[in-house]
Amino acid sequence: MSLPPGFLDELRGRASLSQVVGRKVQWDARKSNQGKGDMWAPCPFHQEKSASFHVDDRKGFYYCFGCHAKGDAISFVRETENVSFMEAVEILAREAGMPVPKQDPRAQQKADTRDELAAVMEEAVRWFRLQLKTGVAAEARGYLERRGLKPAALERWEIGFAPDAWQGLWDALKAKGIADELILAAGLAKPSSKGGKPYDTFRGRIIFPIRDARGRAIAFGGRAMDPDDKAKYLNSPETVLFDKGRSLYNVREARVAAGQGQPLIVAEGYMDVIALHSAGFEAAVAPLGTAITENQLQMLWRIAPEPIITLDGDTAGQRAALRLIDLALPLLEAGQSLRFAVMPEGQDPDDLLKAQGAGALQKLLDAAMPMVRLLWQRETEGRVFDSPERKAALDKSLREKIKLIKDPSIRSHYGQEIKDLRWQLFRPQRMSGAGPRPPRAAGSRVGGKWQPPPEPPMPSTKSSVLVTTDETASEHLREGVILAVLAGCPEIIEDFDNGLEAMSCQDRDHAVMRDMMLRHGHAGAEVLREKIESVLGTGTLENLRAQRHVAITPCIRNPGNADLSRMTVAEELAKLMAARGLSAEIAEAAQDLSGVADEGVTWRLSEAARAADRAQRSGQEDSAEYDVGDNGALLSRDERSEFDKLLGGIKYNKTKASGD
Q1: Does residue 222 have a pLDDT over 90?
Q2: What is the dihedral of CA 438, 441, 444, 449, to 10 degrees?
Q3: Strand partners of residue 222
Q4: Separation of alpha carbons 513 and 544, rounded Å
Q5: What is the residue range of 91's domain?
Q6: Element (H, E) at 28
Q7: What segment(s) does the record annotate as region Disordered (predicted)?
Q8: Is the pLDDT of residue 160 over 70?
Q9: Which of 336, 359, 378 delimits the end of a domain?
Q10: What's the domain count of the chain?
């Protein structure tokens, strides 16, 4: 629909964004300034405790510093209410007391048709519900009672019954004067191929009304009472009102419950959703008899950032969830993913709730695995990797899946997680003499057999400099240099987002500065300084820059050189990561030294030390880029996006920097 020029501007001017958003959030009174229209709250688009969602009421825009959601009043209503652009305009216009301009004749006719069909569907809902109370529905009522649905639940979900008659609903609707074409267009009847009267779509079935996000009845789902029926569940055909791939059962109620903090649960069918809702899990939805589509996935993410997919304990349910991984990978965004809760074998959520109660289901939801773990499980479960060729095939398969992820940061984190899982799978089992590796606890049982206490490490190994060297102080100094340089040149912070996120700081002040840079670095040096000092006190950055090891840094002495600052941060982050890679090796080796020290331990420590040493040498940046922590890494040199992003500017700037 084409709106007159200026209508949307006037609508945005009349609609108070803070009032529109205020219906969905709780404002942070400490950070918000209502007089200036500067409002802050936890983001309604992703679950968080801090107030990172900002509304500028004067400009009419919102922005989340966590998930980067942004827009105006119209886009906010679209996303939170799951409605179309014109529906959002109509909602805001009604609130602002503005009449919406008339649509063109064809669009108006289409809207009128949808309204007529929705009215016909409501008549069908009432008729189906009435039939459930008749004598012919006794078997259906008995089935529902055995499934645990009490009369209140039947009313709540508007459950009905379609008698096993060819024109039962058709005759009832015709008696109300409804035109043939409307009954057919609503999908409630089908034309006869033999030239007779149209016949009912649903016959001999328990009926579940399907409503859209606005609460309109758009379709029905019917469960067959005849166990020999070819289709156990049958949905309405697609109509002007109903697109199966764009609809979810219970979407309206689930959206409200998820907005109140409940986890969004995706189950397989109607009965699962009803059982979950009855047990207190009100943010539950189900796709309508098919695998989840991309449109349904986007609907889920508009409701909650991490829907939990419940996997039925049967093979078919797990296969469907595993296929969902391939659909979701290219669509992942920061804070937007899926988690998977695996039901006990042979059970769905309804079965589990009946057998063990809500507490058992809550435990499974709390333990829901992230998608990367299910991806790993899919690629490795039931397979043996006892040859280089099989390991290479696994690497290739996982690389291809990771490449589907468009977001470079998420792709990098997936690569690192897969590397960690791969290391755990392929980590060599060290041997001590002819027997297995000794247990860590004295006199413990391993594999059902008692093992003697391990022998102590040799004195020569205990005294090794590799075991006793402490890099903690040096790492703390490097953190200070990195933070000081970025505070003085915040325009380069975005280049090092991944490195900063991965940098675990050794004290609270450094951690606060790191978090503030990730959150407010885009706002410029002055705003960043104010944010840091509001938490850590006035003069925090000046004190940091005054520290000797920071003050002697060239880009601190001569501020303003973005290229030199970028290269300095890249080098320091690389050295820090190399040093911490060595520390991790030492920590693991220290555990090994509780048993008999062998040549493998010595070799691992020496290799880690050499890698760290290479990263420390000036002029060796290119090799350090790939040598750090390479213990059987999954990803090839060209695919290490974390290091490529971190150090990609070194090669470009090296010649220029050396001439400064």
Answers
A1: yes
A2: -20
A3: 207, 234
A4: 11
A5: 7-96
A6: none
A7: 430-463, 614-633
A8: yes
A9: 378
A10: 4
